Amino acid sequence: MKALQWQGVNKLAVGEVPDPEIRNAGDIIVKVNRTVTCGSDLHLLGGYIPFMEKGDVLGHEFVGEVVETGPDVRNHQVGDQVVVSSFIACGKCWFCEQRLFSLCDNGNTNPAITETLWGQAPGGCFGYSHAMGGNPGSHAQWWAGPGRVYRGDRDGGAHSWPAVPLRPGQAAASPADRPAGGGPRRDSRLP
């Protein structure tokens, strides 16, 4: 399949990469219908985020259609329209139980890199350097990964609002000057 690949600082190219495949029983394969360039993709392109390798597939904000499911996937079926969260989360660790999916203990296969750089290990992220797991991103024809994705065809940020554990008197903000921030803010109706 064709994918947008990082070739070095400020260098991208469309190239051939292997078709995705189901590797774990809970995986799905998604035909990418729409993908966007996030502001953080520009950090990767510019060389500001370390541990990129030539040929890495960028992208972590996208929507698409489920085209294949692993045998343990119960919440999706072929034909479902889905929004894929950029973070990889197991759904079972303490952080996931607290709905802090971006901090999942099991989502990043290279936690030592980010612990050394940033003093903590966030969860894994699709298309966001080997410091975040080295997982292929969404700037491709198809994507494969865990089947914990949202139904629908809206921006992933918009689907995140129900996950924000707000209590009376608390507030949430999504900065509109960020590439992904404006859409969720316009679409959301917080109680």
From TrEMBL:
Pfam families: ADH_N (PF08240)
Needed cofactors: Zn(2+)
Entry GO MF terms: oxidoreductase activity; zinc ion binding
Start and end residues of each stretch annotated as Disordered: 154-191
Limits of the Alcohol dehydrogenase-like N-terminal domain: 25-125
Keywords assigned: Metal-binding, Oxidoreductase, Zinc
Gene3D superfamilies per UniProt: Medium-chain alcohol dehydrogenases, catalytic domain (3.90.180.10)
Name of this chain's protein: Alcohol dehydrogenase-like N-terminal domain-containing protein
Organism from which the protein derives: Paractinoplanes toevensis
